[in-house]
Amino acid sequence: MRKYTLNEITLMQYIFLIHGAQVGTGILSLPRQVAEKSGTDGWVTILVAWVINCLAGWIILLTLRKYPNFTMLDLFSYLFGKWFGKLLFLPLIAYFAFFGLDILVNSMLYIKAWFLTKTPGYLVLLLFAIPTYLVVRNGLRVQARYVELVFYMMLWIPFFLLFPLGRAEPLHLLPVLKEGWGPVLKGLPTTVFAYAGIEVLFFIHPFLQNKKYAIHGFLIANTMTMLYYMYVTIVCFVFYTPDGITTLNQPVLSLLKNIEFRFLERFDMVILAFYLFVVSKAWIIYIYCTVFSTSQIRQKHDHRLHSSIYLLLAIGVVYVVKPTWNQADEWVKLLTRAGMIVMYVLPVLLYVYVRGFELFRRGKAE
To answer: Where is this protein chiefly located (predicted)?
Structure first.
């Protein structure tokens, strides 16, 4: 019997977990962010970032393929020793914990700004924490089923972005690469936070039933994310003027304000309420990776206590700090720098170390 049989996930669930980890609140402001750095060639930046992410994910899976049933802690303990491996693993846990908190805080700020302006932030987070705990405590398989269900439930949302396109101007996208590749490359760091999520491969890979399709599933998930970002960005680019889009904090929500029905005026608020389900997929997987890892360090199979402690600490942080939009932006910048290390530097270093480690063992055995 394999170690994680009770929490094994199918290939489809594996795809939806990766895609769900990548798509969060970042999409609401992504068109403005890439327009500020890359102008109307921002969609090219998204395409280039997709290629880089595919390469990074491929390197991660090349490393994990050698140890198919190892969790990240198992791998670190095997490669670096029991205690030193745990010590090296702690910064990665902190990264996932902080990332989950940041997604929660960003979601809370959106809800406060659009729906519950007078409600304290910690109470909004408490409302998030209750269903989050119910999903996280039951393991990855239940979480994967939740993510799959939400994906199918929310398939209708992108189609509503087509309604305002009667006033769109496709010429806003031309000429392509009008200032060369410089602005495109300049905008790449901006997309890191939006594309973050491939690092969950380190944690969900051992639970995949048929691991020979791990790379295929990852490429499908990453491509789904790219197409989603590309679609939303191009719709915003052709609707707004190249300069006008940079004046909007959340151009996607501003775009949705233009959709009106006879029976409903503020359609953007309806979309945002439903979109909370989409964002919840991202914070849930980061929280799960955090509490699963801390439970493993303490050699506990049940992570329910760690889940409740994490969520209580998150509520406490919001109660004490009372984060604002400016603070959330600073956290995003910090996570962007950390994300570049975790997603791009760590996989390469780990792959090189594993190759050297295996060659050393093989030579020693001979």
So the answer is: membrane
Q: Nearest 5°: CA angle at 316, between 310 and 317? A: 90
Taking the C-alpha atoms of residue 295 and residue 317, their distance in angstroms, rounded to an integer, is: 21
Kindly report the pTM of this predicted structure. Answer: 0.91
Q: What is the per-residue DSSP string for 76-127? A: HHHHH-HHHHHHHHHHHHHHHHHHHHHHHHHHHHHHHHHT-TTS-HHHHHHH
Q: Residue 70 and residue 64: Cα distance in Å, rounded? A: 8
227-267 pLDDT, tens digit per residue, is 999 999 888 888 887 778 888 888 888 888 877 777 777 77
Residue 256 lies in a domain: yes
- The dihedrals phi and psi of 261, each to the nearest 5 degrees, come to -120, 165
Residue 158 lies in a domain: yes
Distance of CA 327 to the CA centre of its chain: 19
Amino acid making up residue 44 = V
Domain of residue 163, CATH code: 1.20.1740.10
43-92 per-position pLDDT tens digit: 888 999 999 999 999 999 998 988 888 888 888 988 888 889 889 899 99
**Does 353 fall in a domain?**
no
234 near 240, Cβ under 8 Å?
no
Question: Residue 31 and residue 133: Cα distance in Å, rounded?
Answer: 32
**27 with 197: CB under 8 angstroms?**
no
Domain count, the chain: 1
Tokens of 105: 């805080």
Domain that holds residue 203: 5-346
| In a domain? residue 278 | yes
Closest CA to 225 of 201, 194, 256, 253: 194
Exposed e or buried b per residue across 177-192, where buried means at least 16 C-beta atoms within 10 angstroms of its C-beta: eeeeeebbeebbbbbb
